[in-house]
């Protein structure tokens, strides 16, 4: 089975940007498309950015055991569909999961060989600026996400690797180094 890379950290830390850069640098690496109950943001497509599900559809999949991991985050539900992951790894394709901390903990239980990377913001203020700056959340949502982030940051030492996302290029290089070191050679 191919390698699974779990990339986690608080909302707004830049996981998506780092992963986009990583995917452009590491040939053959693919991003697993997560499922969510949140509404699509402008420009997001179902099946490309997320599998957008209703609460009822999500709950049905939970009952059916269709998720490798799933979590509630900021009033929404997110999860990694087992079929999405198995389709790629069975074909020998290494996969990146961009998930929240509680989901990363579940993956650690179900896939103990997965490589776990925690993305750390340079400061709480930088995280606040990123969340406000992306303009996708209300001020209440930003405050809720910051409160969750504060709790999540206490979990950073649980993770095999930590990457501080201060200067984007440095963080991408560190993430690429980690991934390359964990991929089979030859």
Automatic annotation (TrEMBL):
EC identifiers of the protein: 2.7.4.8
UniProt key word Secreted: no
Give me the reactions it catalyses. GMP + ATP = GDP + ADP
Which parts of the chain are coiled coil? none
Q: Where in the cell is it found?
A: Cytoplasm
Gene coding for it? gmk
Output the Gene Ontology cellular-component terms. cytosol
Q: State the superkingdom.
A: Bacteria
Q: What is its main location?
A: cytoplasm
Q: Name one GO molecular function term.
A: GMP kinase activity
**What family does this chain come from, according to its entry?**
Belongs to the guanylate kinase family.
> Keyword annotations for this protein?
ATP-binding, Cytoplasm, Kinase, Nucleotide-binding, Transferase
Q: What is the lineage of its organism?
A: Bacteria, Bacillati, Actinomycetota, Thermoleophilia, Solirubrobacterales
Which residues are listed for ATP binding in this entry?
A: 9-16
What name appears for this protein in its UniProt entry?
Guanylate kinase
Where does the Guanylate kinase-like domain start and stop, copy by copy?
2-180
What is this protein's function? Essential for recycling GMP and indirectly, cGMP.
Q: Does the keyword rRNA-binding apply?
A: no
